[in-house]
Amino acid sequence: MTLIINEDKCARCGVCEPECPNEAIFQTEDAYVINPVLCNGCTRYGAALCEAACPNDSIQKAKKSFLKKCGELFN
């Protein structure tokens, strides 16, 4: 399972970035982004660490078609 950050809900607080053990989350000029190549959907207590830490519920599961497009950008 790979995750994405919904930019409309994201407050850009940065809480998710240090929670990622794979360093898949990084900040761009405009938003936080999850690299789908590095994200393995780690789980703890039934939810990904970044998803559990997000106060705005802005982290969601990526659809397979979207994941394929994103993966091509990072490879």
Tell the overall outline.
globular
Fraction in helix: 10-25%
Integer count of domains: 1
Radius of gyration: 11 Å
Strand content: 15-25%
Which architecture does the CATH hierarchy give at level 2?
A: 2-Layer Sandwich
Mean pLDDT: 83
- Strand/helix succession: EEEHEH
Note poorly predicted spans: none
| CATH topology category name | Alpha-Beta Plaits
Gap from first CA to last CA = 18 Å
Number of strands: 4
* CATH class value: Alpha Beta
Order of strands, widest sheet: 1-4
Assign the structural class, choosing from mainly alpha, mainly beta, alpha/beta, alpha+beta, or little secondary structure.
Answer: alpha+beta
The count of helical stretches stands at: 2
The largest β sheet comes out as: 2 strands, antiparallel
Give a brief description.
The chain is 21% helix and 16% strand. With 75 residues, it is of the alpha+beta class.
Structure write-up:
- With about 80 residues, this protein is of the alpha+beta class.
- The chain has a single domain (about 5-60), classed as Alpha-Beta Plaits (2-Layer Sandwich), CATH 3.30.70.20.
- The protein has helices at about 50-55, 65-75, and strands at about 5, 25, 30-35, 60.
- The strands form 2 sheets. The chain has a two-stranded antiparallel sheet. The chain has a two-stranded antiparallel ribbon with strand order 2-3.
